[in-house]
TrEMBL record:
GO MF, one example: dynein light chain binding
Name this protein carries in UniProt: (California timema) hypothetical protein
Source organism per UniProt: Timema californicum
Coiled coil: none
PROSITE patterns documented for this protein: WD_REPEATS_2
Annotated WD repeat ranges: 327-363
SUPFAM superfamilies for this protein: WD40 repeat-like
Amino acid sequence: MNDQYVYTKKRSEYGRQCMFSDDGPKVETILPVKAHFEDYILKNPVHRGTQIGSVLAEHEANTVRAEYDQHGMNHTEGGWPRDVNPADEEQTMRYRKKVEKDESYHPSILQLSHAMEHTILQNNAVNIYESYFDEYDQVSIAERATARTVNVYRDPSSVKRPVTHLSWSPDGGARLAVTHCNLEFQRAPPDLTTFSYIWEVVVTLPALGTREIRRQVHQVSVQGLPLEPREPGLATVLGPPRGQTGHWMQVSEAYGSTNLILKSVVTKAVQENPNKPQLVLKPLVPLVCLEYNPKDPNCLVSGMYSGQVAFWDVRRGSQPVEMSALEPSHRDPVHNVIWINSKSGTEFFSASTDGQVKWWDTRKMFEPSETLILDMVKIGEEQSLSRAMGASSLEYEPTIPTRFMAGTECGNVLSCNRKGKTPPEKIAAKYSAHLGPVYALQRNPSFVKNFLSVGDWTARIWNEDCKESSIMWTSNHNTPLTDGAWSTTRFSVFYVTRMDGTLDAWDILHQQREAILSVKVCDDPLQCLRVHDEGQLVAVGNSNGTTYLVEFSESLVSSNRNDRPLLTAVSDTTIMMAMLERESRREKILEARTREIRLKQRTRADKAAVPQTEDKPRREESIVTEIEKSAANEFLALIEKVR
């Protein structure tokens, strides 16, 4: 249906053209008519609304969280009925003969043997151990650095407490120990729990109950069926006959020998359960730190809020096995405990904000074996606990068993030697690191002379030989830093946590002005972090009692072949100095120049009459400038050569 009509009209039919002109305003007055008031009806106001958009409704549903539990079973001897005792040889022999007389037994075994023979012939045709690409160099693929949160572990208690320490178990990082403690003095609620937790992190565990029988044989019998060994390269798996229970048998042979390996494989799958911890530690006092024994995954030591230390064994339950007395312990909360690389594997030492470092033995927990007061005094003076600097962090390298480092609350880093005879020998050096407490302190896993310190708003990399200043440092962040650690696999990467809930990953080989990757983990402040031994997982804990498991990409985990020559200095003159050695040399030059200026000022004050030539300082400054320029040119030449 068309409702339009078009017509035409001539211009002449419009009439004469209108001519407009400007005119002033005119005020018109219309007076009210009294007769109209009689027809006016007064009504109440009426409100009416109009909505053009569609009506939407929001609904929320909070489902009940499913509680999971896990139970393990050690299946060492399977396939037997309930009334047959596997330990009784006569019963098992009678039952085995009974099964072998069954009519379906031999057809089932013959049916399995055909698949096994096909696999053997397949393996004999191809060398399964041959490597085709040994002569080629591995090419590193440029991958963008990424990260993702793998799992979240929340504090099961009703009143949430901050995470103060994290520790991975030494058996491949299968478990994660998390301590919760409120360190705010006299602000903890009365119903605050003291529990800490051990979480299961690994998804699958190695085979359990594996038995190996190595024999030089020419004939093997499996389930009563003789199997003739073929050519080298045999590798197959046999199962029980159909309709019967039993465990699988794995028959394998090393390539090029007749040494057969018969394995009874029993696997146990452990599913990660972030809702329920594997073990709940129930101390009388909240734990501030908890550390696994690197030689025994069942043993742990902890530092408590009361200043005591405790020894734990997960096989003994949720209570501590040994605990130090209150009198010989620390006076303040113990912030760090570290195991010592000793022959017995039972020694550890602890540090607290009371300014003391104590050495302990789990076999004699009634008193410390040695005590060191962090008070730097001159020769002949006595140390005083009132002048001691409180320890906020601790560092120990097993390859240097007699030396350790302590970060203090006043921002200093102390390099200590346990075997020193006098106090000045025990506290050998002091580094003025930060404006506030040193929250993290760790040596580089590959270059132990360089260590990382985290405090105030920066993270700094130091060299032991440069005490005046750090060789590298980050720019000041907008929020304070709380913790940091080196990567365990890629020695140029370190991680830093911030108060705004961000986890930064720095790679000093790629860029030094900003982090290579920043991950916003949560909105709450991050308190601590711990890197997994494999380097790909990083556990971080926040102030709300939640622990996040963050997985990083391969580019931040594995090291390239050219990374080590770039980061270290090589003695060959054809390969120029690299980053750390160059920065260390620069700091040494600046330190020498600073000492020289101070010495000259002191000399001028003492001997003002001694003439000084004006060209000598200029000549020395030119020498320093030439050395710095040559070091920079050598480093740039090395970069161009690697490219």
